[in-house]
Amino acid sequence: MKKTTKGALAAGAAAVLLLGGAGSLAFWTDSGSVSGGTITTGEMSISNPDCGDGWTLDSGEATAGAAFDPTADLLVPGDVITETCTTTFTGTGEHLRATLTADPGANSTGLFSGDPAMLTLGVGALQSSADGTNWVDVPATGLTEANNGEQVRLTLTVTFDSTADNTTQNVASTLDAITITATQVHS
């Protein structure tokens, strides 16, 4: 092969490599600008719950709503004790939805910590009030931004499993400090 042919092939190969590696074929392009702006997030919180009235017993054989004294009264399978607490809900933001849950705490013992637990802690009915007097039921879907600034009344329940067997007799259980948690869920 002639030197000039080899040189022409080498120059062509170099041109192809330069086009493929260092740049590209040019096409017409244009760009525009979209205005930016400040984006601000909402907020969700609850105040420390006030649970001043104490525990009450379900309607079983006792009068419904009778006071339950944990130091003197004894539970039997199927019993439910309740305590009503009030907290203030702060919730701002579009499409905000929140649920409330109760946690018996890491140091709860006895029937709260068994596998399966025979005593369970839960959150029952929720109500809200803008003025603390006219209470309205909160739907099962939870709290929303419409409840912002309102007082929320929640019912804590401790349920003694109705299927508890003989191993649950004469057992002392400790309910640790209860943590109420508001959790945001996207609607």
Would you kindly provide a written description of the structure presented here, covering whatever features stand out?
The structure is a single chain. This protein has 1 helix and 9 strands; from the N terminus they run αβββββββββ. The chain is mostly beta strands and 187 residues long. Helix content is 11%, strand content 30%. The mean pLDDT is 86. The strands form 2 sheets. Strands 1, 2, 3, 5, 6 and 8 form a 6-stranded antiparallel sheet that branches. It has a 3-stranded antiparallel sheet with strand order 7-4-9, with no helix packed on it. It has one domain. The protein has one helix spanning 3-22, and strands at residues 43-46, 56-57, 80-92, 97-103, 119-129, 136-137, 143-144, 151-160, 179-184.
Short description:
By secondary structure, this protein is mainly β. The protein has one helix and nine strands.
Taking the sheet with the most strands, its summary is: 6 strands, antiparallel
Radius of gyration: 33 Å
**Class of secondary structure makeup:** mainly beta
Q: How far is the first residue's CA from the last residue's CA?
A: 75 Å
Number of strands: 9
Helical region count?
1
Strand content: 25-35%
> Percent range for helical residues?
10-25%
**N to C succession of SSEs:** HEEEEEEEEE
- Mean pLDDT equals 86
Form type: elongated
Number of domain units: 1
Unreliable stretches, pLDDT < 50, 5 or more residues? none
